[in-house]
Design a protein that fits this description.
The chain folds into two domains: 102 residues, no CATH class; 167 residues, no CATH class. It contains ten helices and no strands. α4 crosses α10, α8 packs across α9 and α8 crosses α10. The radius of gyration is 22 Å and the shape is globular. The two termini are 38 Å apart. The structure holds zinc ion (ZN).
């Protein structure tokens, strides 16, 4: 599973790099990749993640121009992230006790698990694109964030509806279960509300974090943060939900302040000189995605 995740990650890595480059060039997302130096259209065997880079020794097959190390770094980085995600998710999934339920797409738990995994893969890939564009050109493209926000909202709605439909079907199969449905009892409505809580949490977090960044922009008159950060903040809130989105935001500020201090001490930046905030939001989000619960438990334990 880890190896499958790694391979999938490296493939996604080359897409991430291509999307980031095309966003920065403001070029189309469609069409074949070509060498930026000789403009020759690249074949599939020139685009194999990691392998092509190694076989071609980091040079274009056609003109011999050097291909940046960035391609390799992004592919390996995405491979590690998705490999780790698979390892963590499948470990958690197996630790559930399913008695007779066998793993299959038609099984309720497994389908929720697969949908959730697909969304996490999407979320990580999107964050990786925004990390690259903001780091290189301090640019967070709307062409990436707005569709990602739309997909996130759709995903949360779909998963909530599936849970509620499943509960309804499950109850209506037995005589006893039917007594728990309206108008006999409010059991179903109460549990439908529980199922909708993550949805409400995500929506609230999206509005809260996006709104918070918007307020910061208004107070500081646009120094340090831009509209791109607002949309990235909303995306983080939607993708991570409550309370992980809060953990991610706090980590981003801590990491950002830490790096800013190091850069100033090292004399690379002066006070007030801006560094992009997006990469820290992305790093905070990834840490919260993988270890959010642990961080919260640890924090609550410390503060007791
Ligand atoms: Zn070339």
């Amino acid at each position: 599973m880890v190896i499958t995740g790694f391979i999938l990650g490296t493939i996604l890595g080359s897409f991430v790099k291509a999307l980031a480059d095309r966003s920065l060039r403001n070029g189309t997302f469609w069409g074949r990749s070509y060498c930026p130096h000789c403009k020759k259209i690249l074949q599939w065997y020139d685009l194999l993640p990691i392998l092509s880079y190694i076989f071609l020794k980091g040079r274009c097959r056609y003109c011999g121009d050097k291909i940046g190390m960035e391609y390799l770094v992004v592919e390996v980085g995405m491979g590690v992230l998705i490999g780790f995600l698979f390892w963590q998710q499948f470990n958690n999934f197996q630790s559930f006790d399913f008695a007779q339920d066998k793993f299959s797409i038609f099984n309720f738990q497994s389908s929720i698990f697969i949908l959730d995994l697909l969304y996490k893969i999407f979320f990580i890939s999107t964050l990786a694109v925004l990390f690259l564009t903001d780091l290189k050109k301090m640019f967070i493209p709307d062409r990436i964030t707005l569709p990602a926000i739309g997909i996130s909202i759709t995903f949360i709605i779909v998963i909530t509806v599936i849970k509620i439909i499943y509960l309804y079907n499950y109850l209506s199969q037995t005589v006893l279960g039917r007594l728990l449905l309206p108008p006999h009892s409010d059991y179903f409505l109460r549990h439908a509300y529980y199922a909708a809580q993550p949805f409400l949490g995500s929506l609230l977090m999206g509005l809260l974090i996006g709104g918070f960044f918007m307020t910061l922009i208004i107070i500081t008159k646009g120094k340090g943060m831009g509209g791109g950060d607002v949309k990235l903040g909303a995306l983080m809130g939607l993708g991570l939900g409550f309370p992980n989105a809060l953990v991610a935001t706090m980590l981003a500020f801590l990491l950002g302040a830490g790096v800013a201090i190091v850069l100033m001490v090292a004399g690379k930046k002066r006070f007030g000189q801006s560094i992009p905030f997006g990469p820290f939001l992305v790093l905070g989000s990834l840490i919260a995605l993988f270890w959010g619960e642990r961080i919260i438990n640890w924090y609550l334990y410390l503060s007791m």
